[in-house]
Prior knowledge:
The protein is mainly alpha-helical. Helix content is 48%, strand content 9%. It has 13 helices and 9 strands. The protein has helices at residues 13-24, 44-66, 93-105, 108-119, 133-148, 151-164, 198-208, 211-227, 264-281, 284-298, 325-338, 344-361, 396-412; strands at 72-77, 80-84, 168-169, 174-175, 189-191, 238-241, 248-252, 381-384, 389-393. The protein has a 3-stranded antiparallel β-sheet, with no helix packed on it. Strands 1-2 form a two-stranded antiparallel sheet. α3 packs parallel to α5 (133-148) and α9 runs parallel beside α11.
Amino acid sequence: MxxxxxxxxxxxxxxxxxxxxxxxxxxxxxxxxxxxxxPADEPLADMIDRDLKVAAAQxxxxxxxxxxxxxxxxxxxxxxxxxxxxxxxxxxxxPGSLWYLYEATNDAKWRAAAVDYTARMAPVKFDKTQxxxxxxxxxxxxxxxxxxxxxxxxxxxxxxxxxxxxxxNPKVASIQSWDLWPNSTWQFPVIVDNMMNLELxxxxxRTAGEPYYREVALTHADTTLKNHFRPDGSSYHLVDYxxxxxxxxxxxxxxxxADASAWARGQSWGLYGFTMMYRETKKPEYLAQAQRxxxxxxQHPRLPADKIPYWDFDDPAIxxxxxxxxSAAITASALLELANFSDPExxxxxxxxxxxxxxxxSSPAYxxxxxxxxxxxLKHATGHKPAKSEIDVPINYADYYFLEALLRLKATLPGR
Length: 416
């Protein structure tokens, strides 16, 4: 969610490309039947334009249904669009998608809608009860400021950064993710998703000339790098710390199949987060970590042939397990950025993989036809399967990162 800007294991780049090709050949069929072939022969520019037309039709119809109601579209529940309040961690993705539609079309109606829904996010900047302010404000006010330079958007982002750093604990060297739940045994939970909120702090440090914001972001990223990842590059979802000493109390994977499993969206958050932090800092450790995560994801033997992952790489029900189109959309966007920082062979592999994911997401197997899917774009996302929540449904952040990835891919095409 750029506010102002739009290392592998020991092996050679040539070996990496060879292993990548072998790994992708082990893809499995889409649960419940063979995956519908992506339109591989369609010119990318045509595919992107077609997708954006579908997005305009879908979101135009959704706006007509919900704009006079309070809340933000999050998912489809019992055949109806579920609206959530501004406090919901996903609230910023709907205005973010509206800003992306405005950026893609320059149509004033999308700007007006984005301005409307961004204004509805105003209370977020003072919410000290959660860590997701980077998601919530970056996707809404961040794109609004990037595209309009409205100074009130800048002020909201700076206020949000000031709020976010109140959750930083110097002993733990991290920002606390969740407040403690009733009957929870955790004391200071930190989730890998929290990497995504650090861009708000690095931006604020530059904009306000306040180095403390940047120090907090780097310290949190360093702690995550040290404690969240396994030797194969995969990530735990949550690390719990002792807030008084900083000692690790446990490592778990709350939204995955098991503590030791690789929850697909968690891998995507880590990939995107460390890629973004390399862009922001140019610390080589962050680039190396992003490349390790990319290798794990891209070469995984249980990655399906269409490159849209199962919700967890280690679900024993595979191939009869739900997919997660949101993980694919986040990964595609992250890889397109990671390519900008990588050597030519890796860059080509990342762009090819992301392009293949976007072709799959653009096919009828995943992209809804106008009027279907509650007017969301992508089908087959999975939110929190262990909690039996949002399984094989559309989810607003899947649409948001799909649009972001399309615009990033469009920017790489000749003449664009």
